[in-house]
Amino acid sequence: MSSFKAQVALLGMGSDEEDEGEEEEEEEEEEEGEESPGEESEGGEESQPEDGEGEAAQPRPRGERKRKVRLDVKEREWMEANFLRLEQSSSGGMVYKSELMPDFAFFSKEQAVEFVKGKQYKKLKLDMKKGMRTYDETKKLARKAEERRKRLMQQRKERRQKKRQRARAAPADDAEEINRRKAKFQEKKARRLERKAARSST
Fold first, then answer.
1. pLDDT at residue 19, rounded to an integer
2. Which of 113, 141, 161, 200 has its CA 20 to 30 A from that of 92?
3. What digits encode the pLDDT tens for the residues 135-172?
């Protein structure tokens, strides 16, 4: 800068055009300084994005976006029978969840199996299945119960008949057998009198 320009600058004199020209030169220098780091990053090292921006800018592949769980037939049938389902947690792991008790989650199959074997869950599952029965299933269970009742009655009848046959097979003229039956009858009679006395006293 010449001495004349220095004096003009000190005195505050000078044209506005010269001031504007100097300001434009300074702005151009600042813009070049700002662009230079970007140019170096393009030629050499790439600028690394801030935390979280790179992941958002680059979408994950389709296979990683939604993780599909492939289960074999037995595993799927077991889970359906026990009202369980597999879900992906926020951390990326798989957890077992119960449809009957949504607040419970299990991080391993062993924990889920142990929970399913419990009395509380078995009772809850039976109540759930009972409410989900159709008319045909209800009739089928009623027939099954009736058949079981008939079988039990037949078994009791057969046992009573065998007992009578054994009693009749014993010789009636045997003195020991006669005394045993008399003693048994007296014990039965005494018990009957005791019950009668207890009822009358009350």
1. 52
2. 113
3. 888 899 899 999 999 999 999 999 999 888 877 776 66
Tokens of 129: 């299945």
DSSP string, the chain: --HHHHHHHHHT-S-HHHHHHHHHHHHHHHHHHHHHHHHHHHHSSPPPPPTTHHHHHSPPPHHHHSPPPP--HHHHHHHHHTTEEEEE-TTS-EEEEESS-TT-EESSHHHHHHHHTSHHHHHHHHHHHHHT--HHHHHHHHHHHHHHHHHHHHHHHHHHHHHHHHHHHS-TT-HHHHHHHHHHHHHHHHHHHHHHHHHHH-
**102 in Cβ contact with 109 (< 8 Å):** no
Low-confidence ranges of the chain (pLDDT < 70): 1-71, 170-173
pTM for the whole structure: 0.30
